[in-house]
Amino acid sequence: MTEANMIRGHRKQSVLLTDAELLEMRARQRTFEGAYWRTAIMAVSTGLLILKVFTKEFYKIGITFFVFGLVMLGIAVLRRRTAGDVFDLSIPFQTSGNWVLLTTIVTLVTYIILLVLLLKL
């Protein structure tokens, strides 16, 4: 394969999108696969760190972070599975209000639990 047929290691024929469409695709992927996954990984790792480093008084806080991370991971997986045509560039992108509402409720409940646990220390 010649250099003229390659774009950064990929065949030109496999890239059927314009630069603007590729940019839009990456933005959608960051939303669906990046933000939720990063939040879940951060919460799980913070929970594990608290469980490993701190004393028993902080275990409930660590478990709260860990559970929050698992719930966010579940939301990420379910949202990605039900997204359907989100990567179809012919359809305008629309944020799913129900997933945003669910994420907000889960986060709010987690913060309230954390606040109660911190006040009990």
UniProtKB/TrEMBL annotation:
Transmembrane segments: 35-55, 61-78, 99-119
Keywords: Membrane, Transmembrane, Transmembrane helix
Protein's UniProt name: DUF202 domain-containing protein
Organism from which the protein derives: Umbelopsis ramanniana AG
Lineage: Eukaryota, Fungi, Fungi incertae sedis, Mucoromycota, Mucoromycotina
